[in-house]
Amino acid sequence: MVFSTQIFLFYFLPLTLLGNYLLPVRWRNLFLTLVSYVFYGWWNPWFVSLMFLSSLIDWFAGKAITAPGASPRQRKAGLWFSLVSNLALLGYFKYAMFAQENWNRLVELCGGTPSPVLLITLPVGISFYTFQTMSYSIDLYRGQATRAKSFIDYMCFVSLFPQLVAGPIVRYQDVADQLRHRPQKGELFAAGAFVFMCGFAKKVLLANTVSQAADLCFDDATALGVGTAWFGLVCFYFQLYFDFSGYSDMAIGLGRMLGFTFVENFASPYKAGSFTEFWQRWHLSLTTFLRDYVFIPLGGSRGSKWQTARNTMITFLLGGLWHGAAWRYIIWGGAHGLMLVLERLSGKGCLWWFLPKVARTAVMVAIFQFNWIVFRCETLHDGAEYLRAMFGGNGTAAGQAVLAGQIVTPFYVVALLACAAVTFLGTETRHLVVKAQKSFAVAFFVVAVFAASVLALFAQAENPFLYFRF
Q: 195 near 256, Cβ under 8 Å?
């Protein structure tokens, strides 16, 4: 069972912050490691053992890579031990069922008898902490990081609860100094609190509200009218952004409250006017990881334009697969890769470069109404069903009218307009926080919105995070 938001907000977080500031500095990393393991183990105690095993693998791999007098062969062996072990664990828990299902389909096509599929529970956040532990070994091998001073410091880096289950993906060299000497300043704590409150409001007031309309639409697409189908899709378009960016803001804010500075993960991505610009703004920690550990090692853009295109496609196909073990994610990643290739080949960085900036952004908004369908529909058939509703309607006129009356209500319309206003007219969280630290009026506004979010929390049945599944 996962922590309820109320337990986290009113018990776990205050006690963690209190312990972090009351304990002597030398005990803080151990304390944060222990509370992070409690936080993670609340889902399933077995998940803790898997994360500990992954951490142990890369700790010893790091020691082998950086051992005094280690030969190039020994260092490479340590690196391969890390890569093979981590990818094997990730492959088994995240992709084994997908491989079995596709093998069975192939067997059936050949006239054979499929074998039973082994049901495997996907540990929450395994993609995020696996990438972090692997990056530690890779960076040590490249000479881009120094080995952790102690096993406790390293465990704290891997398990730190704010970013553990849904990012941002943190690299060891980004927090190495902070693990040993991190400031415990009042202004840093205040800035972190403001960032956390902004993220919490995004999640509770915006994402959770429009998610209700989106769920009603996607759960019964066979009876949707055209207008209702489009309304539900736009709701999900905003839900996904505010869900993930809200969690990232909360993680970054919590990190600052504990003395850590994590990388920013979003920079108003829905204002992008091209796919190239979108990936310079969306899920920046994943984009940077794929660039540094997949795209560049493949050759990056150093070869011919066709080699660059190949490297881009491979990178984004793997990026799509990272999001989930399903063909829809592979198709999603391949579509993004293809658009990036076409934009690069155009020489303009955008296929509709001739349009004004506002129009380019509008084109991207329209494209993403279709793009995010794969993230919501469990199967390609469900996606096709929803597309049919968008362009012709499904079911009977009476059924469509009933659903429209439940979904396209003033409450959800206002929520949708609020999402659009914050997205396209509002400022980024980091800019709002700077203003809040300088202006009492802005600070009061942020606190008031946070208070409203806490009150709204008690009226909501559940608060799922979409990106926990990835």
A: yes
Nearest to 185 by CA among 246, 258, 82, 239: 258
Token pair for residue 43? 């889902």
Instruction: Give DSSP secondary structure letters for 319-359.
Output: HHHHH-SSHHHHHHHHHHHHHHHHHHHHTSSSTTTTS-HHH
Do 379 and 415 lie in one domain? The reply is: yes
Let me know the angle formed at the C-alpha of 364 by 361 and 367, rounded to the nearest 5 degrees.
Answer: 155
Tally of CA atoms within 13 A in the half-sphere of 293 that contains its CB:
22
In single-letter form, the type of residue at position 444 comes to: F
| CA max distance for the chain | 77
Tokens describing residue 318:
């793997």
Taking CA atoms, 10 is separated from 16, 17, 36, in Å, by 11, 11, 16
**Residues marked as catalytic:** 323
**Do 28 and 88 belong to one domain?**
yes
The amino acid occupying position 340 is: L
Structural contact between residues 43 and 126, judged by C-beta atoms closer than 8 angstroms: no
Instruction: Kindly state whether residues 77 and 164 are assigned to the same domain.
Output: yes
Beta carbons of 257 and 184 less than 8 angstroms apart: no
Tens of pLDDT, residues 112-143: 888 888 888 888 888 889 999 999 999 999 99
Tens digit of pLDDT for each residue in 277-323?
A: 999 999 999 999 999 999 999 999 888 889 999 999 999 999 999 98
Domain match, 151 and 118 both: yes
d(CA 365, CA 386): 18
CA distance 157 to 163: 10
Q: Are residues 194 and 178 in the same domain?
A: no
The structure tokens listed for 447 are 């606190």
DSSP 264: P
* CA dist., res. 253 & res. 237, Å (int): 24
Give CA–CA dist 348/342, Å, rounded.
Answer: 10
pLDDT in tens, 31-61: 999 999 998 888 788 889 999 999 999 999 9
Global model pTM greater than 0.85: yes
Whole-angstrom distance, CA of residue 449 vs CA of residue 426? 15
